[in-house]
Write a structure and sequence with these properties.
The protein is of the alpha/beta class and 391 residues long. It has one domain: Thiolase/Chalcone synthase (Peroxisomal Thiolase, Chain A, domain 1). Helix content is 34%, strand content 18%. The protein has 13 helices and 11 strands. It has a 9-stranded mixed sheet with strand order 3-2-4-7-1-8-11-10-9. Strand 10 and strand 11 form a beta hairpin. Helix 7 packs across helix 10. The chain is globular, with a radius of gyration of 19 Å.
Length: 391
């Protein structure tokens, strides 16, 4: 039996990019205004009685106190209950899960889930991401995000014949979609040749195989399915979700051909929703690197194991394909402001299900969409959320 007790009634975000002209709080306020403005029948911000803030600012900047009171104050709703969620790359998608449970429990009536991150105000040389990657002093020596994902690419190539051109096809597709998304960080096309000739980062990954560091904020407003009609005639319901974990270090991995946390999170989400991968009309998945999207679409059940590369080449995951993946441009083009990423993916899923995707609108046949993140040390945590417009 599907869940369908909680509804998204408003969804919005600010344009992602290098937002040096906006503070953390200004970005958050912009996303909140956008989400409130998206509510069909009007929305009074004072109706929010709880906020869930997704951010990695504590880990990245060492500012552990951020979010609990600074964000509500910046939004003009100081006094409401507020909780910060920090769970690596899936922070935003996990905050959404927590917000949905708060509404479903009946403890809160209107919950704002907001993700916000400043990534560009510090350089990586100042330790921005090394803070997040810190761990065992030997096991992860010299480790960076590309170093963590490159072994998956080389093993996939060895076992399945995946080629650099197949990896590049992911970047080509997502940059094309990003051109159609006014909120994307990068809005330009790339070719396979440009990807293959971009500077090497960690074999076989090149610069255009990697997502950028990005500033951004996104927000959704949740209420019960019963109350959704007060706000909109087009509610999007939470059908199911799943969270799972895996070993954090590479030497502990059982496979380099899949991300077990994603496989298990998806299994749990599908079971909760009473749906399967064949029921999804589109998906926003975690493409921090091109190989990650190839693993994702296999692990989520959209294609058979080993077929992710060919499926990208033949257009299966394009806007007009059997299962459009990352119509927003994905992390590769839209950007990856960590705390905001999952919430922004859920904004895109909401807009697509409401058929508000503009030039990048996909065909909605079944009325279901999937959102996915994976991250943390060694891709050790994954969150999958499933949305539906079916009551």
């Amino acid at each position: 039996m599907s869940w369908n007790r909680v509804a998204v009634v408003g969804a919005g975000l600010v344009k992602f990019g290098e937002l040096f002209d906006q503070s953390y709080e200004q970005m958050a306020a912009g996303a909140f205004r956008a989400a409130a403005g998206h509510v069909d029948k009007g929305f009074d911000p004072r109706e929010v009685d709880a906020v869930v803030v997704a951010t990695q600012r504590g880990t990245l900047w060492g500012q552990e106190g951020i979010g609990g009171n600074t964000v509500p104050s910046a939004l003009g709703i100081s006094g409401v209950a507020c909780t910060r969620v920090e769970n690596a790359c899936p922070s935003g998608s996990d905050a959404f899960r927590v917000g949905a449970m708060m509404v479903a429990s009946g403890v809160h009536q209107v919950v704002l889930v907001i993700g916000v991150e400043k990534m560009r105000d510090k350089s990586s040389q100042e330790g921005l991401l090394s803070r997040a990657a810190s761990g065992h002093p030997v096991y992860n020596r010299g480790e960076t995000a590309p170093v963590l994902f490159a072994p998956f690419a080389t093993r996939h190539m060895h076992d399945f014949g995946t080629t650099p051109e197949m990896l590049a096809a992911v970047a080509v597709k997502n940059h094309h979609n990003g051109c159609l998304d006014p909120y994307a960080h990068f809005r330009y096309e790339v070719t396979v040749d440009q990807v293959l000739s971009s500077p090497p980062v960690c074999h076989p990954l090149r610069l255009l195989d990697c997502c950028p560091q990005t500033d951004g904020a996104a927000a959704v407003i949740l209420t019960s399915a019963e109350d959704a009609g007060r706000y909109t005639d087009k509610p999007v319901l939470v059908a199911g979700f799943g969270v799972a974990t895996d070993h954090p270090y590479l030497h502990e991995k059982s496979t380099f051909l899949a991300l077990p946390a994603t496989v298990e999170a998806a299994r749990r989400a599908y079971a909760m929703a009473g749906l399967g991968p064949e029921d999804m009309d589109m998906a926003e998945v975690h493409d921090c690197f091109t190989i990650t999207e190839i693993l994702d679409i296999e692990d989520l059940g959209f294609v058979d194991k080993g077929k992710g590369g060919p499926a990208t080449l033949d257009g299966t995951t394009s806007l007009g394909g059997r299962i459009p993946v990352n119509p927003s441009g994905g992390l590769l083009a839209k950007g990856h402001p960590i705390g905001a990423t999952g919430v922004a993916q859920l904004v895109e899923c909401t807009w697509q299900l409401r058929e508000e995707g503009g030039e990048r609108q996909v065909a909605i046949r079944n009325g279901n969409a999937l959102q996915h993140n994976v991250g943390g040390r060694g891709s050790g945590v994954s969150v999958v959320n499933i949305l539906t417009r079916n009551r």
